[in-house]
């Protein structure tokens, strides 16, 4: 584990490229997988879950391994916290997130013309229950565990501490670029920004990446469990 102050900082251009290029790769991989998903008769969200395994995991984890095989040496935010701190954090996080459930991002009014981003429209009854259960379980594993774990190591563990700005502005830039990186849902930019900004500031404040990992994994697993319950109820 390195000290934040001893890290070699990235230039502005390198910071932007390292944040956004993985998102472009994700879209390219997703677009290549989607026709196969349609042919196999599964939902388009299945293509995204497979993209986690085919792009997010190998590209971002691979980038870290390329820099240092022991990726934990690259991450300065590995300090320990007490159990009650995690519990208190999760209570505050849930209370903070709830008002955003009904929040409609303002960018929805401006990106309707962007082609090819939104999920293919579908009705669940068009698909077999078996394929929907498979997709839901795949989502719990990829979207619920693999994606947040990999992205937090890469974006918060590696990129955030190397942004050549003051701590506060480094968090703002990192959160904004990460929110934009998720090109699968550009209409959720402001929601992601407002929700995650205090979380990532807390990570930096406490030098502990486990807070953001816990927040994202719990939120994604909760979302995936709702999907699975809906499918099992069909």
Mean pLDDT: 87
Work out the helix count: 7
Question: DSSP strand (E) fraction?
Answer: under 5%
- Helical proportion, percent range: 55-70%
Low-confidence segments, given as residue ranges, are 109-121
Structural class: mainly alpha
Q: How far apart, in Å, are the first and last alpha carbons?
A: 48 Å
Gyration radius from CA atoms, angstroms: 18 Å
Largest sheet: none
Shape: globular
**Overall tally of domains:** 1
One letter per element, helices H and strands E, the order comes to HHHHHHH
What is the compact description of this entry?
With 234 residues, the protein is an all-alpha fold. The protein contains seven helices and no strands.
Structural notes for this entry:
The structure is a single chain. The protein is an all-alpha fold. It has one domain. Helices cover 66% and strands 0% of the residues. The chain contains seven helices and no strands.
Properties at a glance:
7 helices; 0% strand; 66% helix
Protein topology:
Layout: H1 12-40, H2 44-67, H3 83-97, H4 129-159, H5 167-181, H6 189-206, H7 210-232
């Amino acid at each position: 584990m390195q000290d934040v102050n001893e890290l070699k900082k990235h230039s502005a251009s390198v910071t932007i490229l390292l944040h956004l290029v993985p998102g472009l790769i994700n879209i390219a991989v997703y677009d290549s997988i989607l026709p196969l998903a349609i042919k196999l008769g599964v939902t388009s969200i299945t293509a995204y879950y497979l993209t986690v395994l085919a792009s997010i995991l190998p590209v971002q984890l691979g980038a870290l391994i390329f820099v240092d095989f022991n990726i934990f040496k690259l991450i300065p935010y590995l300090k320990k916290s007490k159990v009650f701190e995690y519990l208190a954090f999760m209570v505050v996080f849930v209370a903070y997130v709830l008002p955003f459930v009904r929040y409609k991002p303002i960018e929805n009014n401006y990106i309707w013309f962007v082609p090819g981003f939104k999920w293919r429209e579908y009705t669940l009854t068009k698909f077999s229950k078996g394929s929907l259960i498979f997709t839901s379980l795949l989502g719990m594993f990829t979207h619920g565990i693999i994606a947040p774990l990999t992205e937090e190591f890469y974006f918060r563990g590696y990129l955030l501490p190397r942004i050549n700005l003051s701590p506060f502005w480094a968090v703002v830039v990192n959160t904004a670029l990460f929110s934009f990186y998720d090109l699968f849902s550009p209409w959720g930019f402001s929601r992601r920004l407002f929700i995650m900004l205090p979380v990532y500031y807390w990570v930096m404040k406490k030098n502990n990446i486990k807070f953001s990992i816990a927040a994202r994994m719990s939120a994604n697993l909760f979302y995936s469990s709702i999907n699975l319950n809906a499918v099992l109820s069909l």
